[in-house]
Amino acid sequence: MTTEIIHRDATKLTVRTFIDLCCGTGALGLRLATGTEVKPLTPYMGWKKNLAQPILDAVGVKPLATRLIFNDLGPWGAVWQVLGRKERRAGVMSRLRSFCQEEPRPLYEKLKAEPVPLNPVEFAARFLTLQRWAYGAKPVQHKGGRWLLPGYCKASADGVAKRHNYGKVKPQLPSLTKILEGYTALPVIQASREDARTFSPAVEEGSLVYLDPNYRGRTGYTDALSRQDVVMLALRWAKRGCTVVVSEGEPLEELKGWETADLTARRGQVHKNFARDREEWITFWRSSHPFGVNLGALGRL
Q: In the chain, helix, strand, coil percent, each to 5?
């Protein structure tokens, strides 16, 4: 069943706990917890910044979450473990302010050449800097103690004056520090770096679980879940009494009886490195519905 994107004011769900199994920048959780008060730390990764409110509108969820559970097997899991604690977040902001005093390109080359730091605060500060300056907003990874970088984006580092075909781009590192200052408005964040398939925190019925895996035919996430993994996870969390939302480039036909919504038209302006013809769908189950699904269908996946 395809759902129109509407505001379900009469039937909106009140969600206190939000669980993001592949959180990345945590755009949906930030919107659910604070409305428009807090922005994601990188605007283009995963492209959920523009889709956060349409997702909540389609599912019918009130932005009242007081507990955020972020999980990511990649670098973002480590970053959120730091940013979720006030004193460590302050340490990251201090390091970012010191980075702002240096020339961007020499600093980039310095961070690129040095080993990935073991100190969690230093890791978060350096990762966020490199990610903010990453060419094409592509993900920064690391392996064997070395950074794996997509390249340096001069426009993001230095800023660009307004031109006839696009607006002004501010230097990204000072703006990153300013965004972090707003994170004092966030509720408690419980962050983990676990395999989404085995991650199972204790949550109450009615919690909202979000799953934004690699889209079929695309790569990029550390936690590369198969379609069968995604379906099994969705069913498992729904059976626990949670509202479950799965993002994909198509409806998940394997989830029989679930609702779907086409969000393609709600993406807004698309970054040049994202396919403009790529569709955006969610497949979801509202916990207010009595749960019933043919688990035997999993054997045919």
A: 35, 15, 45
- Co-location of 205 and 59 in the same domain: yes
Closest CA to 104 of 33, 155, 164: 155
pTM: 0.86
Count the residues in the chain.
301
Q: Which residues contact 116 (CB under 8 A, 6 or more apart)?
A: 123, 126, 142, 145, 146, 147
Distance between CA atoms of residues 40 and 22, nearest Å? 15
List pLDDT tens digits, range 134-171.
998 889 999 999 999 999 999 999 987 666 555 567 88
Q: Give the pLDDT score at 23.
A: 94
CA distances from 261 to 18, 54, 207, 232, 270 (A): 20, 10, 20, 20, 19
Q: What is the DSSP string of 73-125?
A: SSHHHHHHHHHTSHHHHHHHHHHHHHHTTS-HHHHHHHHHHSPPPSSHHHHHH
CATH for 256? 3.40.50.150
- What pLDDT score was predicted for residue 270? 47
Does 69 share its domain with 211? Answer: yes
Between 103-117, 186-200, 255-269, 284-298, the lowest mean confidence (pLDDT) is in 284-298
Q: What is the tally of structural domains in the chain? A: 2
**Residue 194 maps to a domain:** yes
| Amino acid identity, position 218 | R
What number is the average pLDDT over the span 101-129?
A: 97
Contact partners, residue 24, CB within 8 Å, separation at least 6: 45, 46, 48, 72, 74, 76, 212
Q: Which two tokens stand for residue 243?
A: 């509202």
End-to-end Cα spacing for the chain? 21
199 and 283 share one domain: yes
Residue 233's H or E segment, with its range, is helix 227-239
Task: Taking residues 83-101, report their average pLDDT.
Answer: 95
Please, what's the largest Cα pairwise distance for the chain? 60
* Boundaries of domain holding 135: 99-183
- Whether residues 229 and 138 fall in one domain: no
